[in-house]
């Protein structure tokens, strides 16, 4: 089968070798999926040029998540919807968790990163990601997509790869116990995953979502994506913490405290932004950390105690969350049409990587199309 293979870091493109590799074989507990489309992370080039020193077994096929159809299934796969010939599209979640250690926090993100030796042992089996004609995936990571979800909105495989984007904040906000009627402040809201967090928070019933950002244009684009609904109250940051905290509280509306702070800032962001938003939480509020901030965040110890603040770190999305997210897409509460999808053929994967690094604004999405039905 054809695949885009990453052999080693290079200072400049081309980073990948488009070549033939052996097709995967479905073993017990796994499924081989014919890939139709796969997501391109905005920071993919940073992995390939060594800016992000991700510990992976080389060579491997990149590509985070996939949309496709089941080609073959292991002998113990019992779900009839995950058998060849079911006629359904499937979504492949990239987050592979240890089957033999429920407390392990080191996970394999298939096609992206294996964090340590344990994750690399899993990677040795599920080595390759979605930039190939076929992919081997653990059976529990494959989700059949109901026909109504695909047909009602006429969703293409390339557009459906946005499920990978939405799954990240969906996992965080669900684990943070976001309730209907909550007021949510989001740091990192104008980026690729942050804009997805705004969409998820609204779909889950937040009364007010307060996206924070430094770009007026990106904040305006974010509001426009939701027809400038009053449920979104953007705040333009000033770099003055006291001023920003006051603006955030005002955006919540008089008489409404801030229940949840969701952070999904990139590694380049200042840790001080997390602290600014944390200060605005009501007593008993929750801070969900899901971003990539490189530095440490100083915790206001006394304030945390007296206000009873919960700080929770969340990494990716649990398996039980995906069916709920698919339900929100199927009924239209999560609208994939808001994504500006730019797709490339597998042969154009280098162009896709370059395009993705420029397409980092709200709902800008890049995909590689690897095959057809």
TrEMBL record:
<protein>
    <submittedName>
        <fullName>Alcohol dehydrogenase GroES domain protein</fullName>
    </submittedName>
</protein>
<dbReference type="GO" id="GO:0016491">
    <property type="term" value="F:oxidoreductase activity"/>
</dbReference>
<dbReference type="InterPro" id="IPR036291">
    <property type="entry name" value="NAD(P)-bd_dom_sf"/>
</dbReference>
<dbReference type="InterPro" id="IPR050129">
    <property type="entry name" value="Zn_alcohol_dh"/>
</dbReference>
<dbReference type="Pfam" id="PF00107">
    <property type="entry name" value="ADH_zinc_N"/>
</dbReference>
<dbReference type="InterPro" id="IPR011032">
    <property type="entry name" value="GroES-like_sf"/>
</dbReference>
<dbReference type="Pfam" id="PF08240">
    <property type="entry name" value="ADH_N"/>
</dbReference>
<keyword id="KW-0560">Oxidoreductase</keyword>
<dbReference type="InterPro" id="IPR013149">
    <property type="entry name" value="ADH-like_C"/>
</dbReference>
<dbReference type="InterPro" id="IPR013154">
    <property type="entry name" value="ADH-like_N"/>
</dbReference>
<feature type="domain" description="Alcohol dehydrogenase-like N-terminal">
    <location>
        <begin position="28"/>
        <end position="146"/>
    </location>
</feature>
<feature type="domain" description="Alcohol dehydrogenase-like C-terminal">
    <location>
        <begin position="194"/>
        <end position="329"/>
    </location>
</feature>
């Amino acid at each position: 089968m054809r695949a885009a293979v990453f052999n080693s870091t290079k200072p400049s493109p081309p980073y990948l070798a488009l070549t033939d590799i052996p097709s995967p074989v479905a073993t017990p507990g796994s499924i081989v999926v014919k890939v139709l489309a796969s997501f391109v992370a905005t920071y993919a080039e940073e992995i390939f040029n060594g800016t992000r020193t991700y510990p992976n077994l080389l060579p491997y096929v990149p590509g985070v998540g996939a949309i496709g159809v089941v080609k073959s299934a292991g002998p113990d796969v019992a779900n009839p919807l995950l058998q060849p010939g079911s006629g359904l599209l499937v979504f492949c979640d990239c987050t592979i968790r240890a089957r033999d250690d429920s407390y392990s926090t080191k996970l394999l993100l298939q096609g992206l990163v294996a964090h340590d030796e344990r994750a690399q042992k899993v990677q040795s089996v599920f080595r390759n990601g979605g930039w190939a004609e076929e992919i081997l995936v653990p059976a529990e990571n494959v989700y059949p997509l109901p026909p109504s979800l695909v047909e009602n909105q006429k969703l293409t495989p390339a557009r459906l790869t946005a499920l990978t984007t939405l799954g990240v904040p969906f996992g965080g906000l669900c684990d943070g116990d976001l309730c209907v009627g909550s007021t949510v402040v989001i740091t990192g809201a104008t980026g690729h995953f942050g804009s997805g967090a705004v969409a998820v928070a609204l779909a889950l019933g937040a009364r007010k979502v307060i996206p924070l950002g430094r770009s007026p244009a990106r904040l305006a684009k974010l509001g426009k994506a939701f027809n400038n609904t009053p449920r979104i109250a953007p705040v333009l940051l000033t770099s003055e913490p006291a001023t920003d905290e006051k603006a955030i509280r005002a955006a919540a509306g008089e008489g409404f405290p801030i229940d949840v702070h969701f952070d999904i800032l990139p590694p380049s962001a200042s840790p001080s932004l997390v602290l600014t938003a944390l200060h605005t939480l009501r007593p008993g509020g929750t801070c969900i950390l899901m971003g990539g901030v490189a530095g440490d965040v100083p915790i206001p110890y006394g304030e945390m105690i007296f206000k009873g603040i919960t700080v929770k770190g969340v990494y990716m999305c649990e398996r039980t969350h995906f069916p709920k997210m698919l339900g929100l897409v199927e009924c239209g509460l999560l609208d994939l049409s808001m994504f500006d999808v730019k797709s490339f053929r597998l042969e154009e994967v280098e162009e896709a990587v370059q395009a993705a690094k420029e397409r980092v604004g709200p709902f800008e999405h890049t995909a590689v199309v690897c095959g057809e039905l």
